Amino acid sequence: MITLEVNSRQREEFIDISAQVRQAIRNAGVNRGIACLHVPHTTAAVTINENADPDVLHDLLLGLERLAPRDAGYRHAEGNSDAHIKSSLLGVDQTLLVENGEPVLGTWQGIYFCEFDGPRRRRLHIRILEK
Fold it and tell me: With bands split at pLDDT 50, 70 and 90, how would you rate the model's confidence at 8?
């Protein structure tokens, strides 16, 4: 298992980790298989989405805020219930196909670590399985 450290700088942000995931796959020497990504945090997530227009990431955060506003009368004493909801909505796992030593992504796709309760030092685990 490979563990990446991700340092967020804001309470909510999408951090492009595509290059780090690509490098982890190359370092593993796997030509063909799958890469399983896992975020071991309850207020963060991992997603694959457009990496060409930064307005898409802005709009995703805006949409998530509308679905789970920060101050909505939640009971959880830590004051971060919205972050737990957003993490559950996007999910803590992604599976990537690996072909020719590279993750199989669409032209406009990038891999994003999703922070919803930062800034924090976070981790992303990667397990690469060879076919």
Answer: very high
